[in-house]
Amino acid sequence: MDRREFLVRGALGLGGALSLRALPAGTALAVQSDDAWWARGNYAPLMEEHSSSRLPVTGALPRELNGLYVRNGTDAHPGATAPHWFIGDGMVHGVRLEDGDARWYRNRFVRTNQLRSDAALGAGGPPSLADGYANVSVFWHADRLLASGEIGLPWELSPEDLTTLGIYDFAGQLRTSMTAHPKIDPATGAMHFFGYWFSDPYLTYHVADPTGALVHSEVVDVAGPTMIHDFAITERDVVFWELPVVFDATRIESGIPYSWDPAYGARIGVMPLGGPASAIRWREIDPCYVFHGVNAHRDGDNVVVDVCRHQTMFDPGVTDSGVLTLRRWRVGTTGNELTFSEDVVDDHRRGELPTRDPRRVGRGYRYGYLVTTELRGPVPGYRGVVKQDFRTGIVDEWRAGHGRQPNEFLFVPTGRAEDDGYLLTYAYDTGTRRSDLLVLDARDVTAGPVATVQLPTRVPYGFHATWVPQE
Questions:
Q1: Residue 241 contacts by C-beta under 8 Å, 6 or more apart in sequence?
Q2: Is 54:66 a contact under the CB 8 Å cutoff?
Q3: Are 259 and 251 in contact (CB under 8 A)?
Q4: pTM for the full model?
């Protein structure tokens, strides 16, 4: 079994396997075909790298937006196949904004070992931490731009031109995978993150200081290799959710080796920020699945977590994720046992891929911004953005209109108020078959874009973005 096949079997870059011995002998993987939804329209891979400068702009780009907007996603380079949208080589798409101009657009493959090894497939053996697709997210910390999947180590990119500089292992100190959703504490500048793997230890928590040095790592005890995509922090806590999406060797042929197994159980855990993990306390909750949390904060003795809650995920008998609602979890931390309650914040709009003011991560906050989605069978569609006011319950919404589909929105602060900033996203136009960069004023999302940057190509639907401020 070559490394790419092992990684595909291992889980879309989203989880891990119990054991190679659990894999059925002679298993054949499904491959991308012309009728697969991730091979059509704007889900299809781009497979080409582009560079363009002095991009046309409609409207007025805010002059205070000076930096690089960059977003990651999956892409199959020529000759490659994929059994699912989640599996593909990392490709980043970036636009540099400066003094009201869109200076350039570039898209580049993340030149991981997986990408570079395709000419010599069949080398054999399971993956090491140096293997992975780096296809889920990008983040900026300690003056480094890192791309991450959810298996393997991150890869460092140049913010000047998005070229791959090499694998990044925190000076040899990181010995586990790195999640796609680190949390940077706005008060200390420390980056909190976790990684998980195919075998024990299944989950490890890490802290990097503001200089980027890895200063803390410890194992968090969990029952097995479940798919933990995200977590949360407050000013005092780390919050994990361990939910019943588990490795399933019988589903390897589908390319999605995970199954919904409510018998595994579901629970939420709270531990001190910075550790020790031995102090984590767990509370059982109703089975569900959460890819993404909006934010978390302390409210006295309670930990409050806002999440995009799916009723189920990877259930072989269900064509989509069931009901998707915005929920508020409240975990009481006094007494010998945690308490738990859950409230529905919004059950009218299918909101996912949330963003918030990064200065409010882990702190009390008022606004969250989510992409409105809809499903036609298993295929996600993207319609616009909602601004959720968690204080008043008021929701402001903007819809992109017929033929235009945005993706994840990223909030970039420019002023002191929590919603004083802009929302950036790539949006695909089915008529022109290319994409634009949209810029919305977060204070008035209903007004729609204040600026539209025309790109020379389409940007396939992808995952998570970051902002690199200009120094």
A1: 228, 231, 266, 267, 268, 269, 285, 290, 307
A2: no
A3: yes
A4: 0.91
The tokens for 217 are 């790592």
**How far is residue 75's CA from residue 43's CA, in Å, rounded to a whole number?**
9
> Do residues 409 and 421 make contact, with C-beta atoms less than 8 angstroms apart?
no
Give dist(CA 441, CA 420) in Å, integer. Answer: 8
Q: Is 283:340 a contact under the CB 8 Å cutoff?
A: yes
Domains, in order of start, for the chain = 3-469 (2.120.10.30)
The H or E element containing residue 21 is none
Q: Which candidate, 354, 358, 357, 345, places its Cα nearest to that of 372?
A: 354
pLDDT along the chain (471 residues), means of 10: 37 31 32 67 91 97 98 80 79 97 97 67 53 91 95 94 97 94 98 88 96 98 91 98 86 71 95 98 97 98 97 77 89 96 90 97 98 81 95 96 94 97 97 96 98 97 97 77
Rounded to whole angstroms, the Cα distance separating 30 from 46 reads 21
Nearest to 378 by CA among 319, 437, 425: 319
Q: Per DSSP, what are the bridge partners of residue 69?
A: 95, 467
Which residues have CB under 8 Å from 287's CB, separation 6+?
A: 243, 244, 262, 265, 266, 312
Q: 188 with 210: CB under 8 angstroms?
A: yes
Q: In a 3-state reduction of DSSP, which class is residue 328? A: strand
The answer to whether residues 83 and 74 touch, using CB atoms and an 8 Å cutoff, is no
Helix, strand or coil, per DSSP, at residue 8: helix
In angstroms, rounded to a whole number, what is the distance separating the alpha carbons of residues 179 and 191? 12
CA 461 to centroid of chain Cα atoms: 13
